[in-house]
Write a structure and sequence with these properties.
The protein is of the alpha+beta class and 182 residues long. It folds into two domains: 33 residues; 145 residues, Immunoglobulin-like (Sandwich). The protein is built from one helix and nine strands, in the order αβββββββββ. The chain binds copper (II) ion (CU) and zinc ion (ZN).
């Protein structure tokens, strides 16, 4: 009697084990998604721009917040993730082009094809300070995948991004650069 009862239950046990495996893999993805990072922006191209930015993964992208100072009063500035985490050059050219793992043209987030590293301009107030509150959709933080921005660079430009000119929105010199680190 007992043997028969266990055999009858076996298919059910196999199905339950399958669900448990699927559940544990999604838990692992969530752990990666909660990664945090920061970037300390240093002046480049002879500027006095500085800043500290915090990054965290949320809503399928990476949120960047913080403050940038030393900008011209009441001015707009291109702000992007660049592909190389190397700010060593005096003009930050070492950071390479915009982060673009999906091979799209430069553009405006939310309304046209764009690089994953593209973002809206940041705006400096009368004191030359910009509060950053930006969301980079579709990128990840510490995932090790193509979309991963960990170890890349955040760059502030001297001029506003026109969201149209190729390959980088005609945003002028790179006045600050910081590597995204844990
Ligand atoms: Cu840029
Ligand atoms: Zn771009």
């Amino acid at each position: 009697m007992r043997t028969i009862a266990i055999s009858a239950l076996l298919p059910t046990i196999v199905v339950l084990a399958g669900c448990a495996a699927a559940g544990s893999s999604s838990t692992a993805a969530n752990t990666t998604a909660s990664t945090q990072a920061h970037a300390t922006l240093e002046a480049r191209s002879g500027s006095k721009v500085a800043g500290t930015l915090q990054l965290s993964y949320m809503d399928g992208g990476v949120h960047v917040s913080g403050q940038v100072s030393g900008l011209a009063p009441n001015s707009d500035h291109g702000f992007h993730i660049h592909e190389k985490g190397d700010c060593s050059a005096a003009d930050a050219s070492s950071a390479g082009g915009h982060f673009n793992p999906t091979a799209q043209p430069h553009g405006k987030i939310g309304s046209s094809p764009h690089h994953l590293g593209d973002q809206m301009n940041i705006h400096a107030d009368a004191n030359g300070v910009a509060m950053v509150d930006a969301h980079f959709a579709g990128v990840s933080l510490g995932s090790g995948q193509d979309s991963d921005v960990m170890g890349r660079a955040l760059v502030v430009h001297a001029a506003p991004d026109d969201y149209t000119s190729q390959p980088a929105g005609n945003a002028g010199k790179r006045v600050a650069c910081g590597v995204i680190t844990k």
